[in-house]
Amino acid sequence: DTGVSQDPRHKITKRGQNVTFRCDPISEHNRLYWYRQTLGQGPEFLTYFQNEAQLEKSRLLSDRFSAERPKGSFSTLEIQRTEQGDSAMYLCASSLVSGSGSSYNEQFFGPGTRLTVL
Amino acid sequence: GESVGLHLPTLSVQEGDNSIINCAYSNSASDYFIWYKQESGKGPQFIIDIRSNMDKRQGQRVTVLLNKTVKHLSLQIAATQPGDSAVYFCAERTDNYGQNFVFGPGTRLSVLP
User: Which residues in chain A land under pLDDT 70?
Assistant: First the structure.
C-alpha cells in the first residue's frame, strides 16, 4: 500500500454514460497525476496538478475528459459520454516537490480504477 | 485480479539467478529514468531511478545501468526471488522539470522454482 487510494476499484458502465473517479493522494504531496493504462501497455500520462492548478494535459485528454483538484488534496477525473475505447485502468499517482524546485521526485501510484464500457 | 501485460515479452529465470531486464528509450534529451514493478491488480511500484548524468546506480538487490550513447537502460536483479515475479516498466522523463513520463512497453518477469 503506497498511501494513494482510488475509488472505485472497478466500474462497469454503458456507452454514453458519464463516470467519475476519485483519487486521494498521500496527504503532504503537492503533485497529483493521472495516467491511463490499457492491457499490455505501460501507463500513458493524461494530466497533472501542482496543488490545485492543472499544469499539463496530454493530447490523450479529449474534451470528454475533465480533471479537478479543487482544494489541492483529492482529485476527480470525469469522463462524459463514455466510449468503448475508454475502457482501461485509470491510475493516479502523487509526489512531493520541494520548494527549491527539485524535480527528481518519486511518484507513488494508487491501485487504479478499472473502467469497462459495454 | 487484474491482469497486466497479457502479451508482453517474458523473461523466465530460475529462483536465485540474476535477472537482466532491458529497455530502449526514445528521447536522447530525456534527463531522468525510473524503473517500476507492477504486480497484477496493483499500480506501478517505484524500484529505482537514475539521472542522465549517471551511468549506474545501485539499490538493494537492484542495479540500473544507463547507456546514453545507444539510449539503453537495464535493470539487474540479483538473486531473483518468487516475489520478484511481475511486469517491469522503464519510464523516461522527456521534458526537463516537467512531469511527462513516457513508459516503455514492459517485460514480464517469471521466476521459476
Answer: 99-104
